[in-house]
Write a structure and sequence with these properties.
Blueprint: E1 16-21, E2 24-29, H1 43-60, E3 68-72, H2 77-91, E4 97-102, H3 121-128, E5 134-139, H4 149-156, H5 166-178, E6 181-185, H6 202-223, H7 229-237, H8 243-254, H9 270-281, H10 291-295
Parallel strand pairs: 3-4, 3-6, 4-5
Antiparallel strand pairs: 1-2
Length: 296
């Protein structure tokens, strides 16, 4: 935390102030996000509390000097919740929302993994159709995946992450600009809020609900091809075994030659630098015990 891709340059952390006086640097925090309980008595209260927090968060991001509002819209919970909330808020001001969905190239004919579908545009269109003030557009990239990467590196001054997503992200950004939008809403933060959980939290489910309920859930996940038995065993038991034993099991399963498989696209010496950085920031390779450790 605080480092950067440039030698002797560090980033200022969120909620922090850096001052320099008399040749000495001083870091201080003026704000820190602290988790708190909502003290809801039942699921209905929790749902209403969530809706109010979402309305507040989306409304704060609709403020602008000029221009229209656009939103990324997939078929998932996160962007759908943001888009729907924005549509309702904008309708109160008689404003429209441009909803943009990334989809595969019109020439795409490949297969998709089990449990996934490659083109979300039809389902996204159904969500957009629920709101009269939403204009839905499907953005299909037609160019090469690496087109414009050098320019993005120059503008961002950092390596580009998720290069496979970049073609449709670029197309959505350009389409939003053509629509006159100066605000583009996204749902990417939902991975840690609205959609937090899933298979990664099977271990927490096991601890909170007992072996019987966890077994029924695991059986359903496996039957629907949403998780393998090996993955469920790793997620369920992994947080509760010693870290060294878990690392040894990973090493045996991957093999010594594939220990750096996630980093194999990097050439040396960047591969070793990245591996050392990951080990320093995430020293514990075990799955999270609960959502708090997942957030950290």
């Amino acid at each position: 935390p605080g480092s950067s891709f440039f030698r002797e340059l560090s980033e200022v952390q969120p909620g922090s102030v850096v001052s320099w006086r008399g040749g000495h640097k001083r870091d201080s925090r003026f704000w820190r996000l602290e988790p708190r309980s909502l003290n809801c008595r039942n699921e209905a209260e929790a749902a209403e509390c969530f809706r109010e927090l979402l309305r507040h968060a989306v409304a704060a991001r609709l403020r602008r000097h000029h221009g229209n509002v656009a939103a990324q819209l997939s078929s998932g919970r996160d962007s759908s919740a943001v888009t729907a909330t924005a549509a309702l808020l904008l309708a109160q001001e008689n404003e429209r929302l441009c909803a943009l969905t990334g989809a595969p190239s019109s020439r795409f004919t490949g297969a998709s993994p089990a449990g996934y579908f490659p083109d979300e545009s039809a389902l996204a269109a159904k969500t957009a159709g629920l709101y009269p003030n939403v204009d839905h557009r499907v953005c299909r990239p037609e160019g090469a995946s690496f087109k414009g990467v050098d320019e993005l590196h120059r503008l961002g001054a950092a390596p580009l992450g998720h290069i496979t997503n970049q073609p449709w992200l670029d197309r959505i950004g350009r389409e939003a600009g053509r629509a006159g939008s100066t605000v583009l809403l996204t749902g990417e933060g939902g991975n840690f809020t609205i959609s937090a959980g899933g298979n990664a939290f099977f271990g927490q489910y096991l601890r909170e609900n007992g072996l019987g309920a966890a077994w029924r859930l695991a059986r359903n996940l496996h039957r629907e091809e949403l998780a393998t038995w090996r993955a469920l065993l790793s997620i369920g038991a992994g947080p509760h075994v010693p870290a060294r034993l878990y690392d040894l099991a990973l090493w045996i399963r991957r093999g010594a030659g594939n220990a750096a498989a996630p980093l194999r696209l990097l050439r040396q010496p960047y591969r070793e630098v990245a591996r050392a950085r990951l080990e320093a920031e995430f020293p514990d390779s075990r799955p999270p015990r609960d959502y708090r450790s997942f957030r950290r």
